[in-house]
């Protein structure tokens, strides 16, 4: 079958000889992929920043598709169902799944003590093949796959597998109170959605910081927020303090993660020499921009090794830090209603629809931020 094939940093190709996935457990399902996205965190893999990303892997943790085969113990979905598949692979039975911490499933990724299994996200996340392919094996099919409502646009559905829940949870973890000032670092798809969702929790002011003008223009229109280009600010932290009466923001959201720009030392240590789990520039800015007693919400992805953060400022300011992978299954019922009611329009983020055969070009465009790309979606030939 046709699938994306990772050949090393900055090298992916469409492989027509990837073996068709097989049922390996009675709770497995095989899904014919109808849409898959390239995520900003896929770029961390593409850029060689995530340990144990093996040659031959197929990325893709955001996808929807049609069930074409099920194991003998699958009861919640059936052949022919069109489903959205959360990026978390969750057993639904372990201590963490029972707390609805589906991103921390203790069974789906026995190689890690932190994150649970994730489709197509290296062997640090379980070593599963992802959905940038014509077909994909979905473990624990009684837990994750959710039938797409008949009224829902497939382009909305595919963004409910990661982007919308992650942006929503970023705002939720911020504990936003009525009238709060919320600063979002990063105007990629997750930052855009976090800014949009901040209003749903009662924010009184939403500010987005990035350096790409076309993304700032997009989020300003999509999320009705203030935007600032950090490359034009002498000091982003000083600017946030100045614009909040010297107090700092009530809530800061790091929606950037490991590939943050803006600080030479962090770029050198985290992106060039790989001596820490990514560049922590956005996290530094978030910690130093939030008010005393404020909350920093982290959804940006960092590597599993240590990273430099100003922990002294965290302690001395009394900051609360909340972070996690989005618990997609927990959030889906609420987010489906938000889409139905027109409160969130996920598909508006999609700027590029690319045939799966051209996956290499899609990664190049997204990685280089060409052609005003916000969110690329891959369409397999078997989807039609």
Automatic annotation (TrEMBL):
According to the entry, every stretch annotated as the Alcohol dehydrogenase-like C-terminal domain falls at 189-264
Kindly give the Pfam families that the UniProt entry links to this protein: ADH_N, ADH_zinc_N
Which InterPro entries does the record associate with it? ADH-like_C, ADH-like_N, ADH_Zn_CS, GroES-like_sf, NAD(P)-bd_dom_sf
Q: Which lineage?
A: Bacteria, Pseudomonadati, Bacteroidota, Flavobacteriia, Flavobacteriales
Q: Which family does it belong to?
A: Belongs to the zinc-containing alcohol dehydrogenase family.
Q: What is the protein named? A: Glutathione-dependent formaldehyde dehydrogenase
Where would I find the Alcohol dehydrogenase-like N-terminal domain in this sequence? 26-145
User: Keyword annotations for this protein?
Assistant: Metal-binding, Oxidoreductase, Zinc
Q: Which cofactor does it need?
A: Zn(2+)
Q: Output the Gene Ontology terms for molecular function.
A: oxidoreductase activity; zinc ion binding
- Classify the source by domain of life: Bacteria
Return the PROSITE patterns for the record.
Answer: ADH_ZINC (PS00059)
